[in-house]
Amino acid sequence: MRAFVPPGVVLDGELVFCERGRTNFALLQRRVTAGRQLLRGARELPAHYANFDLLVDAGGESVLDMHWSSVVPG
What we know:
The model has no long low-confidence stretch (mean pLDDT 86). The chain has three helices and four strands. Helices cover 26% and strands 27% of the residues.
């Protein structure tokens, strides 16, 4: 993520696991409780980060009170 997100930016999102084209919460729960098997599980079934919101822009300004049309291009 560091290669794509400028320093100072704060994002809101979550880890998701996909199976057959759908998210699978049970797989997330299994990963959270993996203990010693964490690294093996990460290799076998990688997680993905789904970003939902931009909270703070690269200039350090909060965008929480901005209307979405002024934040989203186009």
